[in-house]
Amino acid sequence: MNSGTAWAALGTNLAVGAAVSTAVLLAAFAVGARLRLHRVVDIAWGLAFSAVATATYLLSAGHGDPERRLLVAAATVVWGLRLSAHIARRSRGHGEDPRYTALLDKAPGNRTWYALRTVYLLQAALVWLISLPVQAASYGGGPVGVLGVLGLAVWAAGLGFEAVGDHQLARFKEDPANRGRIMDRGLWSWTRHPNYFGDSLVWWGLYLLACTSLPSALLSLASPVAMTLLLTVGSGKRLLEKHMGDRPGYAEYAARTSGFLPLPPRRQPSEPRR
C-alpha cells in the first residue's frame, strides 16, 4: 500500500468533519424540537454523511488521488441521499418513533435538552467516527488499485442489498392484504434485516477504499466495526426485534430466518422436506 497520506491536511479535515456533522445534527435538532418529533434525526443521518463527504472532497483538492477522492465522495453521497430520501418517505404521516419515545420517557429532566445530548449530539459523534474512511481515503496517495476496486464492488453489493430490501418491504406494506403480517419474502426470507446487512457492507467497502497505507487502514478500521456493532447489537437490530417480538408470527419467522447474514431459510421440524 502507498504511504503517501497527507496527514497534516487530514488532521484539519477531521476537525472540519466534526464541525460539519455537528452542524447538520444541530439543524435537525432545531427542526425536531419545533415539531416535537425527534424521528427527524433519522433523516439527518444520511444527510450528515453526505455533507461530510462533500466537505472532504472540497478540502482534499490537491492532496489525495483525484479518482479516489471522487469515487469515495460520490459513493458516500449516493448512499446517504438514498437513505435519507427513503426514511423521509417512510416517515411521512407517522408520529414519533417508539424507540425515541421510550428513550425520552427516561429523561431525568427537560426532555428536549435530554434529546439533544443523547440523540442528536451522540449521532453527530457517530457520523464523524463512521466517516473516517471517507476522510482518510480522500488524502491517500496512489491510484485506485485492486483493493479499491474490491471496495467499490462490496459497496455496490451493500447498496443494492439495502435498496432492494427497502423496496420489497415498502411494496409489501402498501398491499392492504398484508396488514398485520410479517414480511418474509424476497431478501427478507434470507435475513431478518437485509437493509442493515447492506448498510454494513457499504461501510466495509468504503473502508477498503481507505486502505492506502497501514496507518490509514488502522485509523479507518473503527468505522465499519462501529457501524456493524451499531446495526447488530446497538440501536438497530436489537431494538427493532424487541419492538417486533410480540407481533403474531414473528417468533416463527425469527426461528427460520437468519438474524443478519443472508442464509437459506431454516426448515422447521414440522415442515416436510422439499
TrEMBL record:
**Which InterPro entries does this UniProt record tie to the protein?**
UstE-like
Q: Which Pfam families match?
A: DUF1295
- Taxonomically, the superkingdom here is Bacteria
Q: Any idea which UniProt keywords this protein has?
A: Membrane, Transmembrane, Transmembrane helix
- Transmembrane segments annotated in the record for this chain: 6-31, 43-60, 113-132, 144-164, 201-234
What is the name of the protein in this document?
A: Steroid 5-alpha reductase C-terminal domain-containing protein
Which organism does this record belong to? Streptomyces amritsarensis
Q: What is the lineage of its organism?
A: Bacteria, Bacillati, Actinomycetota, Actinomycetes, Kitasatosporales
